[in-house]
Amino acid sequence: MKNPKTIIICAGSLVATLAIIILIIFFSKRQESYRIIKVFEVDGTASIEREEVKDLAPYPNMVLASGDHVTLEKGKLTLNADEDKYIYLEEGTELVLHATGNAQNSKTKIDLLRGAITNEIQNKLIGDSSYEINTPNSTMAVRGTIFYVRVYEEDGVKYTKVSVFDGKVTTRLIYKDGSVSDEEVIVGKGNEVTIYENDTKTDYVSDQTPIKFEELPPEVLKKLQMLIRQGSDVCITDEEIILILEGEGGRVLIDAGKEGLPETDSSDAAGETDDGAGNEGSGLDTGNIIPGEDSGGQDDNAGGNEGSSTGGDSNDDSQDDSKKEESSNQADSYTVTFVYKGNVFGTQSVKAGEKATEPTLKPAGSGKWQFDFGTPINGDTTITWE
């Protein structure tokens, strides 16, 4: 007969072995379903609703759970999944986050209820991984891309707009009964589509069209600027974004995120025209520079012509006076040229005795304009950045 001590030891070893096996199975299953989804950045009025828990205040690095209801009313909120997927929420956005699987086999689905989000998927999805956005009237799937989705309503009609900045997005319609169309519309880089839903129909407003960047919110454009500076190959340039943000009058050629400046024809940067009308134009931004300030000469000429039609013999005298006054007006304003690394960054037209305005935009992250902006301008002036 076996020793009772031996039996107890064997039984204890068996129990310990079984416990280890159970723990291995348990943790391996947890690892399979574990996803790193967290709040990356938050600054404003936002909340998280979780099952049986309401109004959680989000904070940086807060770990989110599948099923979380996320709302941003004001400010900014960025979510991060698997370290390489970023979701930037616009003010007035509400969504439900669904995420399962692991980083190698991730399933991410976002129900966008209202508002807008910019999605940045840095790496192409692998294996059976998926990334989907659902709106009330459409669903879209991607493999790796940068795109913008907005949900809004006008006159009782619900709309979804999808703008693709890089990569491709596959879209399908969701009908009122919840069914999904078989037809896929692939939206390519640089294009966008709008889907509408009224009382009787859900359909595309038109075929995909080029993105109307001027209609995008400034914060989205600034986000694209950030991505460009980080090396993303989106369908718009840094300079084009600046022109939109600053207005067409601001002929900005470079911004603080660039190292160098493209070659520029100085006459073009100064806004000179072939007809010699004297419009110096704006070299930087519309907030600081007054385009066409030196247009008084045109008005004087017009006055001289008016005099010639009614003044008879005084025609020659009036024209001479007009020319003298025009010459005087031209001498009363000067061109201030801003130069960076030997190239024209922009120009300003400044009246004699007045002061130049320091540009709000800077050509480099370090350095300064070598000029005292409290100094009156009494001649054409060149200001360099060092």
Essential attributes:
single chain, 386 residues, alpha+beta, Jelly Rolls, 2 domains, 15-stranded mixed sheet, 6 helices, 18 strands, 23% helix, globular
Looking at the structure, what is the overall shape? globular
How many domains? The number is 2
State the separation between the terminal residues, measured CA to CA: 96 Å
Please tell me how large the radius of gyration is.
32 Å
Count of strand segments: 18
CATH topology category name of the largest domain = Jelly Rolls
Low-confidence spans: 24-33, 248-314, 322-330
Level-1 CATH class name of the largest domain:
Mainly Beta
In what range is the share of β-strand residues? 25-35%
Please explain how this structure is put together.
- With 386 residues, the protein is an alpha+beta fold.
- It has two domains: 36-227, Jelly Rolls, CATH 2.60.120; 249-384, no CATH class.
- The protein has six helices and 18 strands.
- It has helices at 4-33, 218-229, 238-246, 266-269, 296-311, 315-331, and strands spanning 37-50, 53-56, 69-81, 85-89, 93-102, 105-121, 130-135, 138-142, 146-154, 157-166, 169-173, 185-187, 191-197, 202-204, 209-210, 333-340, 343-351, 381-384.
- The chain has a 15-stranded mixed β-sheet that branches. The protein has a three-stranded mixed β-sheet with strand order 17-16-18.
- β5 and β6 form a beta hairpin.
- Mean pLDDT is 77; it is low at 24-33, 248-314 and 322-330.
